[in-house]
## 1
Amino acid sequence: MADPAISSSSVTPSARRGVGSYAHSARERWRRLPLAARIILWIVFVLFAIWLILFITKGRFLKGPFQKIISSSLERDVRVGGDFQLYFAPLRIKFLADGFSIANPEWASQPYLFRADRIDARISPLSLIFGDKRRIRSLLLQKGAADLEWSKDGKTNTWTMGDPDKKGEPLEMPVVQRALIAGTTLRYRDPKLFVSADLAFDTVRAQNTRFAHDIRFTGNGTMRDKPFTLRGGILAPNETITGGRNQLVVAAEAGSTRLNVAGTLRGAFEIEGADLKLVATGPNLSLLFDFLGAALPDTRRYRFTSDLTKVGEEWRFTRLKGYFGDSDLAGKMTASLPDGRLLIKADVETKALHMIDVGPFIGYSPAKLEAQGAKAVVETVAGRPRLLPDAPLRAEAIRRFDAVVNYKVGGVRGDNMPIRNISLALKLDRSLLSLSPLTFDMAGGFVSSDIVLNARGAPVKTTYDIRLSPTPMGKLLGKWGVEESGTTGTIKARVLLTGLGDSVHESLASANGRIAVILPAGSMWARNIQLSELDIGTFIQKMFEDKLKDPVQINCGLIAFSVRNGVAAADPILIDTRKNVMVGRGGFSFRNESLDLAFRADSKKFSLFAGQSPVGIGGYFAKPSIAAISPELLGRAGAGLGLSLVGTPLAGLLAFVDVGDAKAAACGPVLTGAQASAQRTTKGERRDDVGKGTTAKSESGKSDRNERRDQKKKFLGIF
């Protein structure tokens, strides 16, 4: 039989003293603890109490305060329409919300930034306090819908919370390690970049033992009114696999442009540090860069592979290699968004650049180059051949991003292209595009240039500063048949122009500045020269006597033009040789690409029979022509015939007598590239035979008759 319960009255006084003594002893031990230890223990006790209350109640009583606090903090209406849970389970935060929604700003086209029938997440609590990334260990999302949209002016977006006038920030996704998604959609709109996309996500159970499930997505959209499609999947590893990684596969198509990405992710949506492989193919690289919101010159067909990962705010493309057209390319590139503005940095190299692949960079059609080759660079406009490309610069596109690119080329492949070791430093800073320096080796010489395009205003302003260091003429012209053994002369040049316009043609057609080519002392042997359709050998033979039995001994020479509103006038053309002085008149036009030049060589010594007469170069840049028979030569022949009829046949030779009164040029002003007004004879006299020349044809192609008549009187010496 059990003992009856002991009443409090039956407890002896000694027992009571024992209990009281224990409590007193506990209080004494508590008081003896350091103050810091007592505070820590109180904090632990309070936290445990909070944890216990939340665990028991599942934190459902926080639903109202949660909506109020989050709505106030985000300055958006945040609602939970159904069940709500927020507690520690046991150490990670469990967040569950049914009928969850976040409103959009008033300007947005959709009422909600995000809605979901259910969100069930396990969140790392320390990530809410430390670090800049929120870590979600697992996420269940049912029938979610996200609307990501930029304003029309590109200044604000729907996901930048707080002040509605706050500048839009880049989208930062939380790190999600494992996810189950059912019936979720994503909508993205960027009116300024002309981009729209609609994606649908769903989860299916994987059919193997390694992966537990597969988050698949499909979608479509438009980029600058061009449609694209997207599909892919994220294979999440089975929980029983230690250290398993998510596998990502993405395939995107836009017309003939193809992108394929495959690799591993640390988490279901954890792109940071991902190990990915990219393969890109298509007809034109500019179409691909449109997806980045960047402008690139057109190219021919390409294929590239690259390692791809994300580190911080940078997307890094490393071990980049492939080809465009008939040219190779390798290197690395990064894309980031500092201050919300796209920045592209690249260090790339081409071992062999095909000349045809250079064409699209300056405005020639890649499709025509692909079909017609070099013939595609010439078009017929108003019945005249045009060589300078007229494709407009995408000024609006380059205003949207910045770039820093270093590009090196080992050599250029193509007919008669003695160019090697190209080095280009490109910088685009808020619509100011500089190619500085742009350098390359050419036939033993060195070309350095600085080209700046200022698109900060309209029209685009371009400055060209191109410099050729002293270059052996033999090597320079060797590709066209010059016998180097007889050519020792050198050549140096500078082009300094400024023009307005959105294309190469427009820019040069409005250009102002100066072009100068200087020939220091040396010799030239021009036998067997033939440059394109213009027979330089014939030209020089007509200029100088003895038909080049010996090399021409050049004392100094200057071929210079002053350019005004796209029209280049000879200022001056003056070449002094041992036996002759060659002067030139006329010029050319960047406007209609016409050539109208006349050259004449006068002997320094008496010559009984001199057939020299002005030799003309006419036609167009794309189709030049040489006129070896001039009106003066016909005039001499007519005069000779007349003298033969009225006198003796010997008298007819008097028409071809050259008294040899050509005045040698002072080489000082010539070698400094001075204008015609500064040229002097060796005696210091001002030259009267190198006045400013002008082109004879205007934009319409009609001659300025009065100016042309004056030129003929002063230069051709018509009787």
## 2
Amino acid sequence: MSISHPRLHATAYDELQQREEWFRAVFEGSALGISVVNLQGHVMEANAAFQRMVSVPVDELRRIPFVTLGHPDDREHDAALFRRLVDGRLSSYQLELRYLRADGGTFPARLTVSLVRDEDGQPRFCVAMLDDLTQRTRAEAERDGLEERLRHLALHDPLTGLPNRVLLAERMRAAVDSLAHEPGARCAVLFLDLDRFKNVNDSLGHGVGDELLRQVAGRLAACAGPADTVARFGGDEFIIFLPRAAGREQALAVAGQVRKALDAPLQLGSYETYTTATIGIALADGTGGSPDDLLRNADMAMYHAKAVGSVLAVFDGAMHRAVMERLGLETDLRAALAREELRLAFQPIVALATGAVVGAEALVRWDHPLHGHVSPQRFVSLAEDTGLIGALGAWVMGEAARQLAQWRLELPGAAGLEVSVNVSPRQLRDPGLVQAVATTLGEHGLPPAALKLELTESSLVEDPATAAGVLRALKRREVQVYLDDFGTGYSSLSSLHRLPLDALKIDRSFVSEMDGSSTGAYRGAEIVRTIVAMARSLGVRVVAEGVETREQLAALRALGCDYAQGFLISLPLPAAEFEAAFLRGDTPFTWGDPLR
């Protein structure tokens, strides 16, 4: 016999009531839409969140089949899962689907439906929970949009909006790979380098330069077909890639359109200017080669066009051989510098008033172990292009100073000898040049006037402000500067007046015109006369280069030129021969008599 205790019954009742209140609070306060659905699929109860999501009040919900709340295209799948749940083949299911709003729109949601059983395990009802995914979907869309924008930024040039090198490489790789499966198909690359872009940047500012690039980009894009790619390769370089080129003729036709498009003036704010482009073209088929090879070949063709003064060149095998030879020569030049395989030759400079050798120009020479004598014009320009000119110039200056110091120390006749060395435009832009000259003089115990620096007119006009600053710094250290190849058309009297120069070297082209009695000889003599008069007004000396005949020498002396050098006096000589001929000779040099 059991005895029920009233207090125990009250406690159980209280706990049940508390659980019901807790469930009701969760049910009503949940941000999830929750509904209780009978086994026939009709809503028995729904919380406020569920009613708000489907925009249907609970009284109406009780009259609507549960699965009809979803989008018509999603109902069949939902209904099939619900039947399997009620039949006991599923304990729950979850899917993402769309629900209808009162305004006819839809929203994405995640539906989770679970079967609730009684104490005997028999199905009683279902609980459906609805999670509105609108915010998540919007966040995903924003993320996808951000990713797309980031991808666009990663693959396009921010200034012009054109594809950049990364996207260009992707498209070229796909096109080149497909060529192998299409016999006879070809692709082409046009490599464009804008001419005189640096002048616009330097004179009008980077903002104007950027606008020029944007306008050029638009004109180039207009020249390309829908399947072609116009890319900014970097700086003022652009690429036009033709993934399916009919051949050389089509590439040339596009190049012609580009040049025509660039003929029209560019309006850059308040400035009107023009630009042109040098174009290199390379073609490829499916027989081999990579996108990098194609770009390299087009680049070679562009530089070849610049080198020969053309506006356009199409790559061929000879260009590649020339580039490989140049690359090999660069490697050999680096080795020659490291192993001190170079040597100096000295060409005497004479005072026309006395005939005495007062100085020499130090000229670098290279006898290649395989190729023999390599012309200075070839390897010095190579050094300038590859950045080796700094090391080469430092070696020339140091070796010339060493040799001069040795002559001055050992030979009484060389006590007042001076040596000049050439300084390239790149060296002139080196902020360490002035200190390097001072260090070289100090190491060899030479006075500043013993070492002359020869600069070309072109190096002074590239950056006049920097050049003037360097010249003034050299002047403060009493180092003398000669202006080489004077008269080639770069300098003006006003610019010369502001530069602290010590001598002008008349270009050999004017000296060579002075022979005979022709109009050309008269013109040459008048030019030299004018240069000498200009030098006198500036208080600087004059050196004539390239003297090859007695007539030239006599005319230069009559015109008041101070110094002369050239083959008439002597070829450039190795140090030992120069010493024997001019520093140890018993017979003094008589001007007008060739020595070599």
